[in-house]
Amino acid sequence: MNHPFIQALQQIYPAERLLTRDVQLLPYESDGLTAFQTKPGAVALPVDEDEIISTVRLCHQMEVPFVARGSGTSLSGGSLPIADGLIIGLNRMNRIKRIDPRGRIAVVEPGVINLHITHAVEPYGLYYAPDPSSQSICTIGGNIAFNSGGAHCLKYGMTSNHVLGMKVVLADGTVTQFGSESLDGVGIGPDLVGLFVGSEGLFGIALEITLRLMPAPQLYRTVLAAYDNLGRAGDAVSMVVASGLLPGAMEIMDRLSIKAAEAAVAAGYPPDAEALLIVELEGEALQVEAEFAQLQGVIEESGAFEVRVAQSEEERARIWKGRKSAFSAVGRLSPDFIVQDGVVPRSRLGEALQEIDAIKSKYGLDVANVFHAGDGNLHPLILYDGREAGALERAEALAGEILAMCVDLGGSITGEHGIGMEKRDYMPAMFSDQELEIMMALRRAIDPKEIANRGKMFPGVEAPALQQHGLHPLEKQGVISRE
Questions:
Q1: Is the pLDDT of residue 399 over 80?
Q2: d(Cα 468, Cα 475) in Å, to the nearest integer?
């Protein structure tokens, strides 16, 4: 990184919050997608808005690309550094600035951990609904960048449905306000909050976020149903939806993910199950009890060989602990794995699972399936051993075929993990050249120098210099080239 830029940063940050030595930069070389690695030029750790704004304006002035980073849990390479660029680490921007129980809002900084919001508002009978599997460590800033969802997005929606307003610094250093503290302005003018949420850091950095809070449910009914066939579990989802019920969450785990969760957290799942369906009803007690009676009939008809209903909060927590630990728990079964993320229409879940089974056989690799069944969001975990020659290439090619299948079935190449580096070359599978150019034109209008998270999301855009272990599946097939 050029010396004048470092000198300018030293006017903003004390030495302990400006990292430039190799050993200091090492933890920032990758995010949750560890197959991609690159070293940033420096890492700045701001503690207030003024430092962030001054840093972004300096980057714009000196044309130095930057990446805003929270906990680094992105599974698509979305927070991968840019070679010789700047990482702006936001973990110290972690204050919950205001809670308004009557207005049901919380005003937070971008480095606040998702689950900490619920902990802070529990005394008021409220909670924050979006619950990614990484909610105990992921930050609100990252949730905004990727429009994160979680197990309960079926009923309550994604992050975009819970952000009312934001104070942001755009990539050119402009500070502005999107939205407000209420829903009153929704439908008036363009939805700038909706534009910013899910933009993967290409527009700038959220400095302060106003979040919508929900009243805590009076009652939960959490049902765990075990099946001797994955297809039957998928069919059960269709049956629940067809019944008219709208659960808070519906999740499916297959045999491999069950095995991993048991090894990691001893969730107590039925040992002989080929698939588990978790259905959770929540809300006012009278309504939940009526829905629960209906759900019991549907589950019985679906052919589950064992059904459990959580009898306490501890039992409910244990059921969810197994599900939410599944991603990391798979590491107990395989030295390496790829977490994929795609969407298929809910009505074609069974077809998608059969196709994944056929694809994995072709590549000789195991796939553990965990997914948000209610909205068709698949999370196949592709297991491989990176010490074997060509193993990662096979895993990436398998992942690519799964994404192609999702598009062919009328779905999407991502549900909540974003495009980042991993999937940018698949964008033309979903969008026309004209649509991609409109997106790029919008990005350039806000960030004319393209310094905010440069190289992410769009195919053919200058990417960060990186070490990638193995070829992208489309490279292997000769469809794209990085030359």
A1: yes
A2: 12
How does DSSP classify residue 89?
A: E
Evaluate whether 251 touches 372 at the Cβ level (below 8 Å): yes
Q: Identify which of 410, 397, 409, 344 has the alpha carbon closest to the alpha carbon of residue 375.
A: 344
Q: What are the tens digits of pLDDT across the range 195-246?
A: 999 999 999 999 999 999 999 999 999 999 999 988 889 889 989 999 999 9
d(CA 195, CA 305): 46
The radius of gyration of the chain's CA atoms, rounded to the nearest angstrom, is 22
- The larger pLDDT score, comparing residue 469 to residue 461, is at 461
- pTM (whole model) above 0.85: yes
Q: Strand pairing of 86-89 and 42-44? A: parallel
What structural domains and CATH numbers belong to the chain?
1-216 (3.30.465.10), 219-329 (3.30.70.2190)
In the structure, what pLDDT confidence band is assigned to residue 186 with cuts at 50, 70 and 90? low
Q: Is the dihedral of CA 22, 170, 209, 140 positive or negative?
A: negative
Contacts of 73 (CB under 8 A, 6+ apart): 31, 32, 134, 137, 138, 142
